[in-house]
Amino acid sequence: MKAWRVDELGHPRVSLRLEEVPDPVPGPGEALVRVGAGTVNFADILLCQGIYQDRPSPPFTPGLETCGVVEAVGPGVDLPVGAHVGGMAGLPSGGFAEKALVRAPAALVMPPSVPFTDATVLYSTYQTSHVALHHRAQLQAGEWLLVHAGAGGVGSAAVQLGAAAGAQVIATAGGPEKVAVCQQLGADHAVDYHVEDVYDRVMEITAGHGVDVVFDPVGGPVTTPSRRLLAWEGRLLVIGFASGDIPSFPGNHVLVKNYTVLGVHWGAYPHHRREVIDIAHEDLMRLYAEGRIRPLVTDVVGLDGVPGALDALEARQVHGRVVLAP
Question: What is the DSSP string of 115-161?
């Protein structure tokens, strides 16, 4: 089979090689899938360089999230052969390949009616946003929800899910094109942080109330205005640190405004509380079937398009998700 391989750690431009390799063999707790589609993530860039939280030793195939058809299973796995599943890669045999291993404890069976290009985004991206908004923040209809990077991967999912929940959604984005994307996704208001002060504009929109929930995959420069914008008993969801700057939160401010800072480590739920992702999966499939959510897939590339997709991600030229379909 064909697979992108990292034989020596480094930036993907120099470390990735498209090679012919043997099909991986599933071990205990793993399933072999023929890849239908997989998301291309910024984390894969870090993985190639050995600076991601998972650090497989070379040689390995990146591609942290994938979706496909089960061809074989290892010991202790009850996924049926032929099932469509989304899953986290069983490194070192990741999803940038024609076949990959997935970790069965985190795998979710997808309806065959859902195209692989949508299913792979619904698997992790929408799961993260759903667990954040509904399980962690307990978002209620009518509440004000502020979504940073609303045209991005998890941000676009949060905008749609917030709107579906009946929240009043404010999205931030950089530039008129991304602002328009947020509005098309269902945001009630979209703020262009290139030309508007986010704090002032959001306070104007909410008539001084502030927001009840902040969805933050950015960190860094948006942290201070986010916590200032929180209303009494607000909730700030820490999704990630796309800015590269990990924030800290002054305890006195948390106390005085009586808000809650909530971490969202979705990847740990299969091991700690599997029922949480099962509940989210059922609701996501319902919303998808009803046409109330649609993954924002802006580009689909073949195997030879992976390096260019990673370059575009690194240059912040992507909104929504880029998907690999070998």
Answer: -HHHHHHHHTHHHHHHIIIIIIS---TT-EEEETTTTSHHHHHHHHH
**What are the boundaries of each domain within the chain?**
2-123+296-324, 129-267
Domain 129-267 belongs in CATH node 3.30.56.10: no
Q: Please give the C-alpha separations between residue 174 and each of 108, 150, 181, 315, in angstroms, as whole numbers.
A: 34, 9, 11, 14
CB atoms within 10 A of CB 272: 8
Burial label, 302 (beta-carbon count in 10 A; 0-12, 13-18, 19+) = exposed
248: which 2 tokens?
């800290």
* Distance (Å, whole) CA 182 – CA 201: 16
d(CA 163, CA 178): 17
* pTM for the full predicted model: 0.92
Q: What is the pLDDT of residues 186-200, one digit of tens each?
A: 999 999 999 999 999
Question: What is the fold of 2-123+296-324?
Answer: Quinone Oxidoreductase; Chain A, domain 1 (3.90.180)
Q: Which two tokens stand for residue 154?
A: 């998890």
Q: In this structure, what token pair is assigned to residue 203?
A: 């306070």
pLDDT in tens, 214-243: 999 998 899 999 999 999 999 999 998 777
Q: Which amino acid would we find at residue 177? A: E
> How many whole angstroms separate alpha carbon 161 and alpha carbon 186?
9
C-beta of residue 47 within 8 angstroms of C-beta of residue 54: yes
